[in-house]
Amino acid sequence: MGDLESGLTLSRNQSNCNSVSDPGGQIRQDRSGRLTYLLFFLIIVLTPVWSSQAGATGAEEPTQLIVKLKADSPEARSQILSNSDAKIVRSLDSDSRYKLIKAKSPEELRVIKKKLQSESEIEFVEPNVEAHALYSPNDPYYRGGKQWNFEHVNAGKAWNIASKPGRGVIVALLDTGVAYENYGIFRQIPDLSETEFVPGYDFVNFDSHANDDNGHGSHVAGIVAQSTNNAYGAAGLAFKAKVMPVKVLDEYGIGNAFSIAAGIRWAADHGAKVINLSLATSGRSQTVEDAISYAKNRKKVTIVAASGNDGVDRISYPAAYSSVISVGATNKKKVRAGYSQYGKGLDLVAPGGDRTAGILQQTIAMDPVDTARHSFYYMWGTSAAAPHVAAAAAILISKGVTEPSDIVQVLTKTARDLGASGYDTKYGYGLLDIQAALKYRPMSTTWYFAQGRTAN
Ligand SMILES: [Ca+2]
Ligand SMILES: [Ca+2]
Ligand SMILES: [Ca+2]
Predict the structure, then answer these.
(1) Which residues pair with 5 in a beta bridge?
(2) DSSP 285
(3) Is 383 a catalytic residue?
(4) How many domains does the chain have?
(5) Which is the catalytic residue, given 11, 15, 216, 310?
(6) Which of 120, 211, 223, 289 is the most buried (most CB within 10 A)?
(7) What confidence tier does 182 reach under pLDDT thresholds 50, 70, 90?
(8) 450 lies in some domain
(9) Could you tell me if residue 371 is left (phi over 0), alpha (psi between -120 and 50 degrees) or otherwise beta?
């Protein structure tokens, strides 16, 4: 479907677009109207790999111990104090035999624990393990199971490890713009009202208002950072990330290499740490490749792109550049979506959906386009797959994994193998698993959770 103008193609899938009216309303299985110009190369295959993966926990190692004395006697207390550098922080009000002990470091704590365990007046010693609320956002479409794609990437479990997913990380969306502000004829869509934005740029109209006049970009924004736990609509994956809207595609979803290169460099120069490219060009562009190299190598930006929606054994550009994380699409059955381009260089897959089960987020009214109205739409394509990975990258960055090469390593090593055993060109390294990525702890390195334990 590579129709092109200006040398750039967005997949123009004439897809059915099932839209859903606002929360509380009925799902309209509506029209087989044509959602043209969806960058949604819409699809992702998720294969069934739900099996649990054991791994190290991402929780920080405690630096406190709870000590239970046989009796709260001066002898017992002195055994604590004489035996170690420990300090008694407090006692349990209702039973003062329980003492909270603080150490300066996990290492010191291990030493103290060992010493105290052998003391006669001490009943037991245990780490003061961390507790946290199990995070389950209250967005009705998430609660109602409509965001099956988030389950496929273990979002709920990931949010229990990273409860402020993507916090502080700027994710640039090079797309058709985002419905992020009230400006002229444009309106912010309600389920982006609590999403954090940073200033963007419009490389189509050359102004600083990257408003969405197509609907594609706002849907992508929803996948990354729909306002979450606001008791309305849908959730987003990295909902504490800061979204930078960079418009490089026009109202028809068409752009060109020059604007994309300009957008990549602008985003990198303005603090973006992740760039999502849910778009495809009709061919290779040295100008775009140079911009990608600049962003990745000079500005440490992780760049993610959709593999393309033409279903062929060759991934499209910019996904095909080696510096870009290329993402194919799986469907609700965890199988490669038929449209999802594959082949050499495919890194991994993420949910993109298909016409039987799309990816649900809010965007502007699309059929016809009306920038003052909005609805929840199911869309599908590799355009929907890529932002799952961009969001995962933002979450990793917010947890301290900042090097683009480390991010690729973590995401691919923790992806769930699908299709032929091991790496294959249909699924790359497999299906994105954000929880597993957060638990990943390479041996002999110190870079992962900077404040946590290192493996060796
Ligand atoms: Ca504008
Ligand atoms: Ca919401
Ligand atoms: Ca495989």
Answers:
(1) 8
(2) -
(3) yes
(4) 2
(5) 216
(6) 223
(7) very high
(8) no
(9) alpha
